[in-house]
Amino acid sequence: MSAQNATLSVPEEVGLLYDRLTALDTEGTGGSLHLGFWDLDNTEVPLVEAADRLTDMMTDRLRLEAGHKVLDVGCGLGQPAGRIARRTGAHVTGIAISRDQITRATELAEAEGLAGQVEFQHGDAMNLPFPDASFDAVIAIESIFHMPDREQVLSEIQRVLKPGGRLTLTDFFARGPIPADKQEHVDRCLRDFIMTLADGDDYLPMLRRAGLRIAEFFDITEQSVRPTFQQMSQANDQLDPVFEEESDKKFSPADMVDVDEFGSVLLTAEKPR
Ligand SMILES: C[S@@+](CC[C@H](N)C(=O)[O-])C[C@H]1O[C@@H](n2cnc3c(N)ncnc32)[C@H](O)[C@@H]1O
């Protein structure tokens, strides 16, 4: 946490980070703010396409029907929400901690004629502003790693899910101890993006305590993390303006390409009936 923001909570600090990112041109990512998913023999597919593929894989795990109500936890610019709504006919509510993301997401949805099918609101996922059992499904694409207490978020998700409702999320986790010579790179990545790394072994007990039953723990690191960092490191450094205050030690995707222990999981769970 930077000195001038010492009084802010982690969610508030994360909100400001994404306000700054929202001010950047996001065309390169097609509006989605997450990693891609590639077949291992075809990692040349552009990140934009591979990112949509990950959204679709997660959406399919929710078994949605037209008219279902979906909550997108940490909805970014609303691109995944719009894609889910168009593909499935579901109604999607997105929540994010960045006010500027919510403003932009609402504008983009209106411009795309999706205003009746998707809606966005500012809020903290640690304390979801929705009644119990109000959603058929919840998706959280690369957002939970910003939240100080994963178990609290999972409990909140369980609370707002209807019995039988499904959750799918992606999260970063340590696949093993980070080697000493890579620790500095991982620390920088976690610090610059205000994230923590989960312990994969913690997920099963965490879900159980939150009242959710695991359906799938899919380690997508090889198909997702490595090719994304490879493509990002070849692209222009779009993040320069965001981290210019710390230009001596800013995150570099190239540093992360060969950190095998920095993993990503695609996790699916359900609320028992
Ligand atoms: C990496 S972005 C992913 C955005 C979106 N899911 C996507 O894939 O395009 C992380 C998102 O999590 C949101 N976020 C982080 N902490 C949050 C919190 N405590 N409550 C709600 N949203 C949060 C951020 O505002 C941002 O939208």
TrEMBL record:
Does the keyword field hold S-adenosyl-L-methionine? yes
Query: Which biological process, per GO, is one annotated for this protein?
Result: methylation
GO MF terms here are: S-adenosylmethionine-dependent methyltransferase activity
| Methyltransferase among keywords | yes
Which residues does the UniProt record annotate as the domain Polyketide synthase-like methyltransferase? Answer: 42-272
The record ties this protein, via Pfam families, to:
Methyltransf_11
- Superkingdom of origin organism: Bacteria
Cross-referenced SMART domains: PKS_MT (SM00828)
InterPro entries in the record, alphabetically? Erg6_SMT_methyltransf, MeTfrase_dom, Methyltransf_11, SAM-dependent_MTases_sf
Q: Which CDD domains match?
A: AdoMet_MTases
Q: Which keywords annotate this record?
A: Methyltransferase, S-adenosyl-L-methionine, Transferase, Ubiquinone
Know the name of this protein? Answer: Ubiquinone/menaquinone biosynthesis C-methylase UbiE
The organism is Saccharopolyspora gloriosae
